[in-house]
From TrEMBL:
One of its GO terms (molecular function) is metal ion binding. Gene3D superfamilies: 3.30.540.30, Nucleoside Triphosphate Pyrophosphohydrolase. InterPro entries: NUDIX_hydrolase-like_dom_sf (IPR015797), NUDIX_hydrolase_dom (IPR000086), Peptidase_M49 (IPR039461). This is Nudix hydrolase domain-containing protein.
């Protein structure tokens, strides 16, 4: 029985899907734009690239040396799944997704075979970094695609391409494809001394401080409970590392293990600890590490077994450009794919897909990882996994620790919070636990769970896990009651049409704490305060609560604001630069997170939220609100 011809998704000239698919032969006959994958295997120890010789029966460039592995992305398939599948089919190499690093996208536009074959192809170019060359006898070649393989120095290969050697598929090394050679050269020829100096400068932008808080106000029971709460906070750390990127935990463990082997490695580990990922928070998420710095993993059965060869060792990869969707979505998923899939779901499923507490995954990836037959469930590749399932073992551990802490605590409000949060970790329903957090009145103040969505730069939907543990400053908390009680006044005086103002803004509890410990999504510059929860159901029903981290604010004032003032403010005016004004400004900023429209009615009459409608610009809009200055002025005038 003749196999049906592969269909490809037809793209616009700018690379967007048109919604049309056509047989592969027709696509190349008509010159339609389409997608493909290129996979390069690079051996670190020899600085060599693996090439394959294309089979003599190929329509394009038969018998020429080419990319390690390549192939079209079939209609409806994803890029990374296609790359993994092509490598397995053509060369007999089975690798997990963390072996593949997307390094760039290359548009190839050419006409060959006397105009009969038009190739307008967007290629996702992946790099697989192995420690050593794979023995040639380990490969299982697909004879209809590949006739031979060989390794060649990347410099020699670049030279052959530059002189347009007739034995090799042509690529313009002075054009887009030159990025492959530039990336390899930068990684393996870069000056270690220069990198060390750069890391030292990056680290020096942060001021190390010691946090201290008076524990004498805690009961003995709460002190004992604190031990278990800190352990649960450390679990939030583990989850956040995984949320940032799927190979991030491996990278962390590798850097920590090798930190003492050289001064350079110590610097890498130090700066990684600040950022909790290979991307620098203060440099617009520019990578300060590369896959060449990453963990080495061994796979004994990735290829055909070769006597006296222990197996394939590769670097756990991560991209130079920080993924907008972090590890909440498949790395090769774009907004259009998500929106088309979401619109096909039932209303309750759409709510879950765009909710705070779920990740989006691919059936095809699960099938590849499980070595199952390729049989998708339903017509769509994407599916939803709640946090309670995705992080099941870690959340079970955190839940157990919080239940133990709750059993020990003798503070009713804290006991309620700890038990309800422990239950929420397993049920994925955080409503009751967030109400308990808002009403917390104990000396030991605990914020723990999935809250902020800044890490999801694709949509702003998914929440990261975090923990803040502190001692409540009762005197400072009492002094700030004025601000929380005046939220309705602020709402009524917002400079906008009254139709958008809420009539039932609740007073917002404000708690001032001395921070003891934080974990999870607390990377880079440290926060001074937070206004939670972000769940619109709770904001609508109960409002929100604020927590001010006073000792962190004092440290920022001392180490950042005062030096700026010394450089920028006239000497006779510096006496007016005081901590209380700085602290008040932060309070008003947080107050303004709790006012303004949250739930809205769209032109079609449908109810929605500002967060869902504004998506990725939501928090930019929130943070840039000038209302915080307005709030200071209004409250001062009113009181």
């Amino acid at each position: 029985m003749q196999q049906a011809e592969e269909h490809l998704d037809v793209l616009t000239k700018t690379g967007l899907k048109t919604g049309v698919s056509k047989p592969r032969g027709d696509v190349h006959r008509d010159g339609d734009y389409h997608r493909a994958v290129h996979v390069w295997i690079f051996a670190e120890s020899t600085r060599e690239l693996l090439l394959q010789r294309r089979a003599s029966c190929k329509d394009s460039w038969p018998d020429l040396w080419d990319i390690s592995s390549a192939g079209h992305i079939s209609a409806g398939d994803s890029s990374l799944t296609s790359a993994r599948r092509e490598l397995e089919e053509e060369l007999g190499i089975t690798l997990p997704k963390d072996a593949f690093e997307l390094i760039f996208v290359f548009l190839q536009e050419c006409v060959i075979n006397d105009g009969k074959y038009i190739n307008n192809e967007y290629n996702d170019v992946y790099l697989v970094t192995t420690l050593d060359p794979i023995p040639l006898e380990a490969f299982v070649l697909q004879e209809t695609e590949v006739s031979a393989v060989k390794y060649i120095s990347y410099e020699e290969y670049k030279r052959l391409l530059a002189k347009e050697d007739s034995g090799y598929v042509p690529y313009d090394v002075n054009g887009q494809y030159g990025q492959l050679f530039d990336i390899i050269e930068k990684r393996y020829k870069e000056n270690t001394v220069a990198r060390s100096l750069t890391l030292q400068k990056q680290i020096s932008r942060y001021a190390p401080i010691s946090l201290s808080a008076e524990l004498t106000g805690l009961t003995d029971s709460d002190k004992e409970a604190l031990v278990f709460v800190v352990k649960a906070a450390n679990v939030m750390d583990e989850i956040f590392y995984l949320q940032a990127w799927y190979s991030n935990p491996s990278l962390r463990d590798w850097l920590k293990e090798h930190a003492d082997t050289s001064e350079f490695n110590k610097l890498k580990w130090s700066y990684y600890q600040i950022n909790k990922s290979p991307w620098s928070s203060l440099d617009e998420d520019e990578a300060f590490l590369s896959t060449a710095d990453s963990a080495i993993r061994l796979l004994s059965k990735a290829t055909r077994i070769v006597k006296d060869w222990k197996g394939l060792e590769y670097r756990a990869a991560f991209p130079l450009l920080k993924p907008a969707g972090a590890n909440f979505y498949p790395p090769d998923m774009d907004k259009m794919e998500f929106e088309l899939w979401k619109d096909s779901l039932e209303k309750h499923e759409q709510k879950e897909a765009t909710g705070f507490f779920s990740v989006i995954k691919r059936h095809s990836e699960f099938i590849l990882d499980s070595h199952l037959s390729d049989n998708k469930t339903g017509s769509h590749d994407l599916y939803i996994v709640p946090y309670s399932e995705e992080y099941k073992s870690l959340l079970a551990k955190a839940s157990d620790l919080l239940h133990k802490a709750g059993d020990i605590s003798d503070s009713p409000g804290l006991k309620r919070l700890l038990h309800s949060k422990a239950d929420a970790f397993l049920s994925n329903d955080y409503y009751d636990s967030d109400i308990a957090w808002m009403e917390l009145d104990s000396k030991l103040d605990v914020t723990i769970g999935p809250y902020e969505t800044y890490e999801d730069k694709l949509f702003g939907y998914k929440a990261t896990f975090e923990a803040y543990i502190g001692i409540r400053d009762d005197e400072a908390t009492a002094q700030l009651k004025l601000f929380g009680d005046n939220l309705l006044l602020l709402e009524q005086n917002l400079p906008m049409d009254s139709a958008y103002k809420s009539e039932d803004v609740n007073a917002a509890p404000i708690r001032v704490i001395q921070l003891l410990y934080n974990a999870g999504d607390v990377k880079g510059p440290q926060t001074l305060a937070f206004n939670l929860p972000n769940d619109e159901r709770i904001v609508k029903d109960r409002g929100s609560s604020m927590v001010m981290l006073k000792n962190v604010s004092e440290a920022k004032f001392k180490h950042i604001l005062l030096p700026i003032a010394a450089a920028c403010v006239a000497n006779d005016q510096q006496e007016h630069v005081d901590f209380e004004s700085f602290f008040t400004h932060t309070i008003c900023h947080e107050c303004c997170h709790g006012i303004g429209p949250h739930t809205i009615t769209l032109p079609n009459g449908q109810k929605s939220t500002v967060r869902l409608v504004s998506s990725t610009i939501y928090f930019t809009r929130e943070i840039s609100l000038i209302a915080k200055t307005f709030a200071v002025n209004l409250i001062i005038k009113d009181t």
